[in-house]
Design brief:
The complex is a heterotrimer of chains A (about 325), B (about 300) and C (about 325). Chain B has about 300 residues and is of the alpha/beta class. Chain B has 11 helices and 13 strands. Classes of the chains: A alpha/beta (about 325), B alpha/beta (about 300), C mainly alpha (about 325). The interface between A and C is large, with 50 and 42 residues.
Chain lengths: ~325, ~300, ~325
């Protein structure tokens, strides 16, 4: 089942076209929304929530049309915005319960659920404190809690790790991952930090200048044609390179001590040859893996290429 | 360029930095730590905004506090965005150049040079109010380089940049480092740091936790055995073969059934033994790698220790 | 599903009841009121705002006890014979104006301003709440408590008078008094709710909004007092003032002036001196009620302008990014 399908969506602010005929399908699971600044990611989120009226085109979220069913959609969607936000003058429990009531929960359920959600988000005794006294990490958690309280089917996260220190990021990503897998909750994450996206998402959508540039599973986007392998040595070792080339392999210049090697035959065979060669030339192999592009490279490729959008959803469809 | 000897700084009862002894040389050095670890305090001490409570801090051989001789050779790129928003980028940089004491003509030519360096020359005539985060960061870097400093300090320079901007910014910093300048970058985002440098300065709760090269630091963390993940279609066969190897502390099958996870000590000799074992059998490996051989794991091991 | 003896306490989705996503303003209003009534200041100032009724009760009590000794039996009490009942309510209303302002500042000045600072709109608007729900909810959150504060003592006093002073024409003087009073007690809530929302929406800090609103109030008050002086200086004590009619209209051009003016229109009276019976009959010590044709539309117009201001300042489009 698709969570959201967008058809030729055009959104204009005055003369500025923020979304220019965007079409995409968001399947179940956790999807990353990538794009440089000003690519239209935020506009897409706004349109999904019904804050912006599209000039033309259509979109449906969870089977509901964005133009007709704004309120019904917002009841089933949770938004964790990028900026700090809370409702002043309340404790965290009150705030989250109130957010639930706003979404239509009965008051008695809202308070119960508020405690439950704060447990998931790891806010302990601090929940009885006023939100204004919170640190950055706690504010991020409370934002997630208020987005989850009413049990949304789709969760929109805008830069969820903004301003967090490494431990805080780790916690937040773990949290997002745990709520988004196997719990009937679908997530759309917009972030500039590609490793974060890689940690929590299965698929990505890349937009640029209001158009779709690529969509598909992260695994597929990272694939490189020809199945080269990356071999990491302990030290840089020119004799190893020379010997490999003698075997008929093409060796790309190293990144630190990692060589990318391409030769005919299965990767397993290449690896065996490389190990043999390494032993003969006195190099020590510290690791080898089937080479893949970093998500960053794949992303940069997608936004700089002029070719039509890459879609890789045929290979294994929704693997949610 | 910076040497600190038992430097401490506290604010009333709150300790900012506790007995730091370190050196910072040319090239890019990453300043890491959690919130409240003392990164900002250290930057403020080096830029002479604060005086160490105890200890001896020298920048270019002199004490930095209220010392214009040091300021002349330092560039500082703060975290906060405070501009005169109605200026254009070019006006703003030129204005700061005049504050730096350059003559009118010099400030003009120097402004063009630094704007060129950060790749903003073509966009600098727009008002700062309309700048994106990346452009703001570049303007901040441009103003920090006006007086051609020998050392540049950057506080969270990559915050809010998109991947394109981030890569370009890292390239600019790399070019500066190649010119022999010392660059101290504080950041929360470890994979970014990893792309920039392997040289670290890790603070934790005001104490200096580690300093030096990432690889060296990792190999010194003996408490956590190296993890090695071996991917193969025949994990049980591989396990039987590997069990006889020395150094293996533990062995675990992955749930998906196509890999095993090892913990080993003295990885150097293990890798040699692994190559030998594989070559002398008909075992086919799809790959092996060390998942904790990166900055993120090192940071975690050190901070949680 | 066979239930396992170990409960799974990891994240689960909420599948319990949800109200349909309409009319969410009630949730907002309810929460605003809950927060208001938690403030200690609310209760203190609300209690203080009743003090004129307390004074009246005391005056009535003494009038009664002293009168029984001096008045011949069966004559009735001259104090109560001359009294214009509705003017007592009008006076209490006028006196409570300052307290209403303080309450309005306490409840209203911060509402939108503090929300602006905390980006609270992001939370509201990403839930099934529209801008209209937000404004209505916030408005009711000020209107209802203020109206209750005005209404409770007024109605209690009405009941007291009804039980005690029917023989002195309490009911016959104006049989519709109760309806007029109900209209009157809604005035401060209506005006302050609209005006504080409008002012509050211009600021990021509740204090600034409060300071601005009280500045508006006191400038208006100063103006009204100036007009009052003009009127009384131009007329002999107790006689008809010779000041031009425009001055009498201008007298009502302030935050409390317009409310008192409207109260006079609603009650159908020009008002009279504070203590009944202390002036000879026929002597005026009050400024006549303003023209209903001008002031009723003006009142709602001003409230409307403030509401429009609030409406235009709340923008859903700014919500993300």
């Amino acid at each position: 089942m698709t969570i959201a399908s967008v058809h030729n969506l055009v959104v204009k602010y005055g003369n500025f076209t923020a979304l220019n005929g965007l079409s995409c399908e968001i399947p179940e699971g956790c999807t990353g929304l990538l794009g440089p600044n000003g690519a239209g990611k935020t506009t897409l989120l706004k349109t999904i929530l019904g804050f912006v009226k599209p000039t033309s085109g259509s979109a449906s979220i969870l089977g509901m049309d964005i133009i007709q069913a704004g309120n019904a959609i917002r009841q089933k969607v949770g938004l964790m915005p990028e900026q700090d936000c809370h409702i002043p003058g309340m404790t965290a429990v009150q705030f989250v319960a109130y957010a639930g009531e706003l979404a239509g929960m009965p008051a008695s359920q809202a308070l119960r659920r508020s405690h439950e959600v704060l447990d998931y988000c790891g806010l302990g005794e601090a929940r009885y404190r006023n939100v204004e006294t919170y640190s950055t990490g706690m504010k991020q958690r409370i934002k997630l809690a208020q987005a989850l309280v009413h049990g949304p089917k789709l969760l929109l996260l805008d830069e969820p790790t903004n301003g967090l220190d490494p431990a805080g990021r780790e916690d937040m990503l773990e949290l997002v991952r745990s709520v988004s897998h196997g719990k009937g909750l679908n997530v759309l994450v917009s972030s500039h930090l590609l490793p974060d996206i890689e940690r929590v998402c299965d698929r990505v959508i890349v937009v640029m200048k209001g158009e779709l540039r690529a969509q598909g599973t992260i695994k597929d986007l990272k694939k490189i044609a020809g199945q080269p392998i990356d071999i990491e040595l302990r030290d840089v070792c020119p004799p190893f390179v020379a010997a490999m080339q003698a075997q008929g392999a093409s060796v790309m210049p190293p990144k630190r001590t990692t060589y990318r090697i391409q030769m005919a035959g299965l990767p397993e065979e290449t690896a065996k040859i490389a190990m043999q060669v390494a032993r003969d030339s006195g190099a020590q192999i510290r690791g080898f893996i089937l080479a893949e592009r970093s998500l960053e490279d794949a992303f940069l490729d997608a936004i700089t290429s002029t070719s039509p959008p890459v879609s890789t959803q045929t290979s294994d469809g929704g693997n949610a | 360029m910076v040497t600190a000897q038992n430097v401490s700084r506290w604010y009333g009862q709150v300790i900012g930095l506790n007995d730091i002894t370190c050196e910072i040389g040319p090239g890019i050095t990453a300043l890491l730590g959690m919130n409240g670890a003392g990164k900002t305090t250290l930057i403020r001490l080096i830029t002479g905004q604060l005086r160490p409570t105890t200890g001896d801090l020298r920048v270019f051989g002199e004490e930095p506090f209220a010392n214009p001789n040091v300021y002349r050779r330092l560039g500082y790129c703060p975290e906060i965005d405070n501009f005169y928003e109605h200026y254009t980028g070019r006006e703003f940089v030129k204005f700061l150049a005049r504050l730096d004491g350059l003559s009118k003509a010099d400030s003009k030519s120097r402004t063009e040079e630094v704007l060129e360096m950060v790749g903003m020359a073509d966009r600098a005539d727009r008002k700062i109010a309309g700048y994106s985060k990346g452009m703001r960061q570049r303007i901040k870097l441009a103003q920090a380089m006006l007086h051609n400093p020998d050392m540049i300090l950057l506080d969270e320079p990559l915050n809010g940049l998109d991947p394109v901007g981030r890569r370009e910014f890292i390239d600019i910093l790399g070019a500066l480092a190649n010119q022999g300048k010392a660059i101290l970058v504080s950041s929360h985002i470890l994979f970014e740091v990893e792309q920039m440098t392997r040289s670290l300065l890790l603070l934790h709760r005001g104490r200096l936790l580690a300093t030096g090269d990432l690889g060296v630091i990792r190999s010194l963390i003996d408490k956590h055995p190296h993890q090695i993940r071996i991917e193969t279609s025949e994990p049980r066969k591989a396990a039987a073969l590997l069990a006889s190897l020395p150094n293996i502390v533990s062995m675990k099958f992955d749930r998906s059934g196509d890999s095993i996870q090892l913990e080993v000590r003295e990885p150097d000799s293990f890798y040699d033994a692994l190559a030998k074992a594989v070559l002398e059998s008909d075992l086919n490996l799809r790959g092996f790698s060390s998942p904790d051989n990166n900055l993120e794991s090192v940071f975690k091991y050190l901070v949680e220790a | 599903m066979a239930s396992s003896p170990i409960a799974d306490l990891t994240y689960r989705n909420y599948d319990g009841p949800l109200d349909p996503p309409v009319n969410r303003w009630w949730a907002i209003a309810k929460m605003s009121m809950r927060l208001s009534t938690k403030k200690k200041g609310f209760w203190v100032w609300a209690s203080l705002s009743t003090f004129w009724y307390l004074i009246l009760l005391a005056v009535f009590y003494f009038a009664e006890t002293t009168a029984t000794a001096t008045t011949a039996l069966g004559q009735g009490n001259p104090f109560f014979k001359n009294i214009v009942w509705k003017d007592q309510f009008l006076n209490a209303f006028s006196v409570s104006q300052l307290f209403m302002l303080i309450l309005a500042l306490l409840l209203g000045a911060g509402t939108i301003a503090n929300d602006n600072r905390a980006n609270a709109l992001l939370v509201y608007l990403s839930k099934p709440c529209s801008k209209l729900d937000y404004v209505i909810g916030k408005w009711l959150g000020i209107f209802v408590p203020l109206t209750l504060v005005a209404a409770v003592p007024t109605l209690l006093f009405y009941v007291y008078c009804l039980l005690s002073y029917r023989s002195y024409g309490f009911l016959t003087q104006d049989p519709w008094l109760i309806l007029r009073l109900l209209g009157m007690v809604m005035l401060p809530g209506f005006f302050h709710a609209s005006a504080t929302l409008g002012v509050s929406s211009l600021f990021q800090q509740g204090r600034l909004a409060g300071a601005t609103y009280s500045a508006l109030y006191f400038f208006g008050l100063f103006f009204t007092k100036a007009m009052q002086t003009v009127i009384f200086v131009n007329g002999p004590m107790g006689g008809e003032s010779t000041a031009p009619p425009i001055v009498k209209s201008l007298y009502y051009c302030s935050i409390d002036g317009i409310q008192i003016g409207l109260a006079k229109i609603f009650l159908h009276t020009d008002g009279s001196q504070l203590f009944p019976g202390s002036m000879p009959v026929g002597v005026r010590f009050a400024i006549e009620a303003p023209s209903a044709v001008v002031f009723v539309p003006a009142f709602f117009g001003i409230c409307g302008v403030f509401m429009l201001l609030a409406w235009s300042r709340i923008r859903a489009v700014e919500v993300v990014g």
